[in-house]
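Incident review: delayed structure delivery

Summary: a single-chain prediction request sat in the queue longer than the usual turnaround. Root cause was a stuck worker, restarted by the on-call engineer. No data loss occurred. The affected request and its eventual output are reproduced below so the record is complete for anyone auditing the incident later.

Affected input:
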Amino acid sequence: MSATRLCLVRHGETAWNAEGRVQGQLDVPLSEVGHAQARAVAAALAGERFDAIYASDLTRVRQTAAPTAERLDAPVALDAALRERHYGMFERHTYVEVRERYPAEYARFRDKDPDFDFGSGESLKAFAARALECVERLAARHAGESILVFTHGGVLEMVYRRAAGMTLSSPRDFEIPNAALNRVEATPGEWRVAAWAEVAHLERALDDLPG
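Output delivered after worker restart:
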């Protein structure tokens, strides 16, 4: 089967990103910096052709996708399976606050315990299965085509780990900046990272995710 060429974009910056605050599945909008980044993404992708555009249904991702969709005159299909991981009790707190309030739970999170689900959230194992199933489904739907996917840092991390053959619990040694362009070629048997964390179109790009 022909490879699907995916361009994956993390949403633009939010005020919570700048504060180091855990967003998860809370519906936080872009900041002014994030809106500027979204416009920069649209300018960077203006000369490219995509057979479909997909996005998480959360506001910060929809707002990031909108300028590109308008510039390319293409619809955006929303998919809730592209949402960020559900961080349960961590959501709304900064990572510093989480470390102080929930030291045992933070240690399990820091160590990437695949079964830790924040008490009321989503385990790393379950999140990876959900995110990768979604990307696999989209890739299969568009075999031999190019698609543009706007999503979240956690989903991008799972995609990179799959393509690079990394385990869920190994330390992260790659960046996931806001509004960066990330390119993967996917066939049913193999995913390959073609380019990652492209930020030449941005004045600044924050990677606020813990490693």
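Verification: Residues 14 and 39 are 15 Å apart (CA to CA).
Action items: add queue-age alerting; document worker restart procedure.
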